[in-house]
Specification:
- With 164 residues, the protein is mainly beta.
- Helices cover 13% and strands 43% of the residues.
- The protein starts with a strand and ends with a strand.
- The strands form 2 sheets. Strands 1-5-10-9-6 form a 5-stranded mixed β-sheet, with no helix packed on it.
Length: 164
């Protein structure tokens, strides 16, 4: 059985409906933007695709000593890729909204498998779009509060373990 080495959770802004998990402060341009796909991977990063672009999503990052056990229960989908982590310090690019660096430190630099899973994308997208029918003024404090109540309900998980 694999052991969890470290974990961190953050809220991420899915700018243009995407965000990128990166190594260090390197914006990996080898990763193709996912388009309609849920996920895409490059040599040093992965992109994840949200169905909305205005509500921050929850991202859990985990470092494992070996491949963790997996159950897809409660997750809409998942994909696994192999990426090169030259610094071993994981961050997130929120595209034009900025970046968060130093979110998770892997045991050593090197090649890692990363399993990305997601849930509640449809639910949050529908709830966000329904706000426009509920509120006449999208600049009102009530609209802002309703939008804020959706934050973190759309969830992503990225599990890292060394490539065997």
């Amino acid at each position: 059985m694999s052991r969890l080495l470290s974990h961190n959770s953050t809220l991420v802004y899915p700018d243009y409906g995407i965000f990128q998990i990166i190594d260090g402060e390197d914006l990996d341009y080898t990763a193709p933007v996912p388009g309609r796909e849920d996920f895409s991977a490059g040599e040093r990063s992965v992109f994840l695709h949200s169905f909305q672009t205005n509500v921050r999503v929850r991202l859990d990052l985990e470092s494992w000593e070996a491949e963790p056990a997996w159950s897809s229960d409660g997750w809409e989908g998942s994909r696994t890729a192999v990426i090169e982590c030259t610094t071993g310090v994981i961050g997130v690019s929120e595209m034009t909204a900025g970046a968060q660096f130093g979110l998770l430190t892997l045991p050593t630099p090197g090649r890692y498998r990363v399993r990305a899973a997601y849930r509640n994308r449809h639910e949050v997208s529908k709830a966000y779009h329904a706000l426009f029918d509920r509120f006449d003024d999208i600049r009102s404090p009530e609209f802002a509060e309703a939008k804020k109540s959706l934050e973190g309900r759309e969830q992503y998980l990225a599990q890292f373990w060394p490539e065997p």
